[in-house]
# Entry
Amino acid sequence: MWGLPSDAIYAIMNSVTVEAAMSVLRQYGKHQDVWKSIGQKIAFHLNARTKGNLRIEFIVFIQEDGILIHSCTNS
# Structure
């Protein structure tokens, strides 16, 4: 998973909060890659759910870091 060692994956999977998982991801410099992938999956599932008939935007944020990912464009 993302080239992380098994102890890091174990720590992420056992994290109680997103902030705790982010801490592990930051240690390995993988947080941006992981959130980009999550954003792509969110967009895919929202589009599939609405059958492409609606324009849906999303934002994911956490208290500590603010906005992590969003689908918004500057249009």
Observations:
- The chain has a mean pLDDT of 86.
- DSSP finds three helices and two strands in the chain.
- Strands lie at 59-62, 66-70.
- The first strand starts at residue 59 and ends at 62.
